[in-house]
Amino acid sequence: MAKAPIQVVWFKRDLRIHDHSPLANAAAAGPVLPLFAIELKQWQAPGSAPLNA
Fold first, then answer.
1. Which of 20, 26, 42, 44 could be stapled to 7 by a disulfide with Cβ–Cβ 3.0 to 4.6 Å?
2. pLDDT exceeds cutoff 80 at 53
3. What is d(CA 49, CA 53) in angstroms, rounded to the nearest whole number?
4. Closest CA to 30 of 1, 13, 11, 12
């Protein structure tokens, strides 16, 4: 029997997991590799949460 492929879910700006439809869909299909890359310009923008929060 073949293994299910790994599903990659890219968390662009929203790190919520409880109501994240793409994450739920990926988890239903098999193993998930969550991916998040810090974009300093985005985090330094007005209205962003502080990095040390």
1. 26
2. no
3. 7
4. 1
DSSP secondary structure letter of residue 2 = P
Q: Which two tokens stand for residue 16?
A: 């919520």
Q: Note the maximum CA span of the chain.
A: 51
Please list, residue by residue across 38-51, b when 16 or more beta carbons sit within 10 angstroms of its beta carbon and e when fewer do: eeeeeeeeeeeeee
Distance CA 8, CA 27 (A): 10
Q: Tell me the pLDDT tens digit for each residue of 10-40.
A: 988 778 888 989 999 999 999 999 998 888 7
